[in-house]
């Protein structure tokens, strides 16, 4: 299998809140509608669509997990330095995100933290020496 593209679809309860949160973090909008808000992430412009939970459940014909209770996926954002990791932690808090684990070293040459967006979707921010 060789897909032409890949993107993520995540469920949210409030499109305006989600748009404000990711805009405050500096992500570039990929558009919005009554059903979703979408952003480009990273240098490769990976797309994450944030659909209203009811819309995503209906379209996929599946039950959508409560992201505050379980992790359906954890995306990792690569940082360029420990200083940038610390700065991003502050930006996440100021934007209304929840820091799950504060920035810390874990293993030799690894530094990062875990946060959740307002709907509970988890993201790992990670700096690795030499990466």
UniProtKB/TrEMBL annotation:
InterPro entries (UniProt xref): Glyas_Bleomycin-R_OHBP_Dase (IPR029068), Glyas_Fos-R_dOase_dom (IPR004360), VOC_core (IPR037523)
Pfam families: Glyoxalase
Domain of life: Bacteria
UniProt domain VOC: residue ranges: 4-128
PROSITE patterns in the record: VOC
PANTHER family recorded: BLR2408 PROTEIN, BLR2520 PROTEIN
Protein name: VOC domain-containing protein
Organism lineage: Bacteria, Pseudomonadati, Bacteroidota, Sphingobacteriia, Sphingobacteriales
